[in-house]
Each structure stands twice: as C-alpha cells, then as structure tokens.
Amino acid sequence: MRRLFPHPGLSVLLVGVWLLMLNAVTAGGVVLGLVLGTVIPIFSGPFWPDRPRLRFGWGIVAYLGLVIGDIVVANFHVARIILLRRTRDLRPCWLVIPLDLRSAEAITTLAATISLTPGTVSADVSTDGRFLLVHALDAGDPAAEVARIKARYETRLARIFR
Amino acid sequence: MSALAEIVVSALIVTGGVFALIGSWGLVRLPSLMTRLHGPTKATTLGVGSCLVASMVYFPSAGLGWSAHELLITLFLFITAPVSANMIAKAHLHRQRCRLDADAADGIGEDLPETGSDAGWATFGDR
C-alpha cells in the first residue's frame, strides 16, 4: 500500500484538482484522476527524499481560515496607507525573523503566507535556513511585527508540520 | 436572478475593482521597488479574489450551472503570487549589491540586515 501510494495527501490533492478542472464528477473523470493520482506521486517520489509529515485535520482548515481573514483585514489597512499616508511618513523596513521551523516545506509555507498577507513580502532566507528576510511596507515597531508573525503563523504551522 | 444575488454580485465586483485600482495606484506612487512590490500583491489577493467570488455567485444564480474553476484560479494564484514577488525581490537585492540602482529610495544596498548567525542570505550564496 505504501509503495502504491507513497504520498497519500498528494494523491488526494491531484484527484481533487483533476475533478475541479473537469468541472464534473463522471466515472471516466474519476478513473483518470485516480490513475494520475497514483502515477504522479510514484514518479515524483525521488524528488521528495524527506517529505514532511502533515497533520491533516482542523489545524489546516483553521490556518486557512485565519490567513484568509487576515488577507481581507490587511488589504483595507494597506489600502488606507496607499491612499492617505504621505510618502515621507511611510516607515518601510527590513524584518529578520528567526525561524523555529526546520523543514523546507514549512518555511516555504510561512514565507508564502507572509507574502500573501499584504504589508509584508518575504524576500530571502539565510543559507542555514534559520532566518527569514521580510520587507514591511509600514512598521512602527519592527520587533512587535516579528513577534506577531511568529505567534500568529509560525506556532500554528509548527503544529501542522510535525 | 434574484435581487439579492444581483446586489451581492455587484458589490463584490465593485470591491474587487476598487482594490485592483488601489493596488495599481500604489504601484505608481510608492517611492521604491520594495515598497511598490506591496501594491500588486494586494490587487491579486482581494481584488481578484472578490471578482472570483462574484463569478461563483453569479453563474449558479443566473441558472448557468455551477463552476469550480474559480477555486482552481484562486489556488494557482495563491501558489504563484508569492513566488513571483520573491523572484522580483531577489533580483532587486542583486541589483543593489552590484550598485546598478544608484539612488534606490530604500537605501538597502548599505543596510541590509545581518542574518543573526554566521550564515549569509541565500540570494548571495555562502559569502
């Protein structure tokens, strides 16, 4: 079973995306989706030598909900900055976030979250993977912003990626 | 199509359009590349997002059938948008290091922060 489905999560995702792409649940679509979901993880397995183990469940759903909510709130915040703040009152700065996450996939997810929530863009990671370089559009207190990102996103991701 | 659905769809489209416009305006008026990078990430997330939600509400309520493609567009957009922003930022860091942008308003060529350990930033390799 393990050899046939080396990556069950990826298989489920592929079948799901395939059915969404077809936009209909038909017998032929499900069969072809299952074939793709079986074959692609087997052939792409060598590219994932030590893939992370995810804890599927409410943690992921709650994290997605939190990020989507933050995106909406932060959009209004940044829109106000763009429209109302004068350029010389902007306080753009670099944030260096020390990482507790170790797996590359978890750090990538954190960096993507930071880029998607407006007001911060992740720019770089240190060569030893312990620090993340983030550009903030307007941060009055860089240390508080770093603490917020760590408490809000990183602790939740640490629970999802075990 | 019911009046309620019409109100919801038009409100979502207007919201999306306004945020796309604000994102583009940010691209014009913000002072430096790194701050301008924040403008387009806004337009893709909430601007495109609410247009997609409007489309998901419109087609079923107009009797044209349910479509799932909007979910896929959202998924692919959320995967690709951070990567392209990251690539632009990395290219900018290289240009700064090579002094190609003489008067960047960030001034980050001089004071890019240290990593906090012996390792450097990955964009510049092991130096």
From TrEMBL, chain A:
Q: Its domain of life?
A: Bacteria
Record's subcellular location:
Cell membrane
UniProt keyword 4Fe-4S, yes or no: no
Could you tell me the membrane topology recorded for this protein? Multi-pass membrane protein
Record has Transmembrane as a keyword: yes
Instruction: State a single Pfam family of this protein.
Output: MNHE
Output the InterPro entries linked to this UniProt entry. Answer: Cation_antiport_E
CC annotations in GO: plasma membrane
Q: Which residues cross the membrane?
A: 12-36, 56-78
GO MF, one term, reads: monoatomic cation transmembrane transporter activity
Q: Keyword annotations for this protein?
A: Cell membrane, Membrane, Transmembrane, Transmembrane helix
Q: What is its main location?
A: membrane
Family named by the database record: Belongs to the CPA3 antiporters (TC 2.A.63) subunit E family.
Tell me the protein's name. Multicomponent K+:H+ antiporter subunit E
From TrEMBL, chain B:
Q: Which domain of life is it from?
A: Bacteria
Q: Which key words tag this protein in UniProt? A: Membrane, Transmembrane, Transmembrane helix
Q: So where does this one cross the membrane?
A: 6-28, 71-89
Please indicate if the UniProt record lists Membrane as a keyword.
Answer: yes
User: What are the recorded GO MF terms, alphabetically?
Assistant: sodium:proton antiporter activity
Does the record's keyword annotation contain Transmembrane? yes
PANTHER family, alphabetized: ANTIPORTER SUBUNIT MNHG2-RELATED
NCBIfam families named among the record's database cross-references: CPA3_mnhG_phaG, PRK12674.1-5
Q: What is this protein called?
A: Multicomponent K+:H+ antiporter subunit G
